[in-house]
Write a structure and sequence with these properties.
- The chain has 391 residues and is of the alpha/beta class.
- The chain has 2 domains: 6-265, Aldolase class I (TIM Barrel); 314-390, Arc Repressor Mutant, subunit A (Orthogonal Bundle).
- It contains 16 helices and 15 strands.
- It has helices spanning 32-50, 79-92, 112-120, 135-140, 147-159, 178-190, 208-214, 223-239, 259-265, 292-300, 314-326, 334-341, 345-348, 350-358, 373-376, 379-390; strands at 6-11, 63-71, 94-105, 125-131, 165-171, 195-200, 243-246, 249-251, 271-273, 278-280, 284-288, 306-311, 332-333, 362-365, 368-371.
- α1 runs parallel beside α2 (79-92) and α6 packs parallel to α8 (223-239).
- The two termini are 25 Å apart.
Length: 391
């Protein structure tokens, strides 16, 4: 984990759980203070084990150039608390002066003073979980905010001086029409964000929405309707100045892509802090307990809160690399694949490629293999086909 240039910090607190979310979170806000102490301990301990402390006596270390505070709801922390978390990172790691520092913000949890203060901590990118600008849709998703609060939060962020603002939106809610989804996108574009993440509603096992489907409370959209909404989203945002650079992500020009998330899609190493967070060093993936109590207990005893780890085989790395790269606009660099795996991609997957190219779902151009928009609607099936050939 010691060669990482990216840090993810999980803030596992929510006022209440959203109906679709399967990320680890807690509503016991009384634990925030104890959690932050444990978080500082984990950051200190990992830095010591890596020998990557920012202190000169430890010598040079990789420069961290992306830090991402996700959740949960990071904006439930006070400005001073977020500032202290970031300072702990700077005290233990070499953080680039122009690092991309992102905090996820939920409307309904912040005001103008908060956002102004947050800007002063060095945060330079916000990911605002608007999800929709339709109150009925927000109620279905069990969000704590209204459409008006979402719009006001965006306006306040701009007034506070944030120029790099990403909006999270969800589509495919049962009963949603194409016209209603376009209206959501129009309202998002009215605020001129630099980035939009548009996620297809998925029913993760164990979530309230998945349970409601089992109980027959509603029928989710089928693949045909979801594919239609996906393609419509891509075409609409592309026509309005965004590049569809990853399956769920759109940026107003290359400079506004998420640097942090782009690291994941290139299968590079990263450090994760907090309960449920994952770390990867290019060979070994580890993950922390999905329990804040276990997390705090381990760290108070001087132990890393690691639940388990796995050493990825060459075949697993290959399958993940293909899956991640085919999510992106640029696709898979054939030379990079050969350098990583000592295999010629076109020869190894000749039959699969022949089918994909023959059905006009993708192309090979300028040394890259990528899926077109139609191909990306079949991403999961295509990835499964490659994986079956590898694993």
């Amino acid at each position: 984990m010691c060669n990482s240039q990216s840090i993810y910090i999980h803030i596992p607190f929510c006022l209440r759980k959203c109906a679709y979310c399967d990320f680890y979170s807690e509503t016991r806000l009384s634990l925030i203070s104890d959690y932050l102490k444990a978080l500082e301990q984990e950051i200190d301990l990992r830095a010591q084990l890596c020998g990557s402390s920012a202190l000169p006596s430890h010598g040079p270390a990789p420069i961290i150039d992306t830090v991402y505070l996700g959740g949960g709801t990071p904006s439930l922390l006070g400005v001073t608390q977020i500032g202290q978390v970031l300072q702990t990172v700077r005290d233990n790691f070499r953080v680039s002066p122009d690092a991309e520092i992102t905090v996820e913000i939920n409307p309904g949890t912040v005001d103008s003073d908060y956002l102004t203060g947050l800007k002063g901590t060095g945060v330079n990118r916000l990911s605002i979980g608007a999800q929709s600008f339709d109150d009925a849709k927000l109620a279905f998703l069990n969000r704590i905010h209204t459409a008006d609060e979402a719009l006001k939060t965006i306006d306040r962020a701009e007034t506070a001086g944030f120029e790099n603002i990403s909006l999270d939106l969800i589509y495919g809610v049962p009963g949603e029409t194409r016209a209603a989804w376009i209206k959501d996108l129009e309202k998002a574009l009215d605020r001129k964000p630099s980035h939009i993440s548009a996620y297809m509603l998925t029913l993760e096992p164990g979530t309230p929405l998945a349970d409601q489907v089992k109980q027959g409370d509603f029928i989710p959209f089928g693949n045909d309707m979801m594919s239609l909404l996906f393609k419509m989203t891509s075409r609409y945002l592309t026509q309005n100045g965004f590049e569809h650079y990853e399956i769920s992500n759109f940026a107003r020009g290359g400079a506004n892509r998420s640097r942090h998330n782009s690291r994941y899609w290139d299968l590079t190493s990263y450090l994760g802090f907090g309960p449920g967070a994952h770390s990867y060093d290019g060979a070994v993936r580890s993950w922390n307990h999905r329990s804040i109590d276990g997390y705090i207990t381990d760290l108070s005893s001087g132990r890393l809160p690691v639940a388990d780890q796995e050493t990825l085989t060459l075949e697993q790395k290959m399958a993940e690399f293909i899956m991640l790269r085919l999510r992106t606009l640029e696709g898979l660099d054939l030379d990079k694949f050969q350098d990583r795996f000592q295999l010629q991609f076109e020869k190894k997957f000749e039959i699969i490629l022949s089918r994909i190219l023959g059905e006009d779902l993708g192309s090979i151009e300028n040394g890259r293999f990528f899926l077109n928009l139609e191909g990306r609607t079949f991403l999961n099936g295509i990835v499964e086909t490659f994986s079956a050939e590898i694993l």
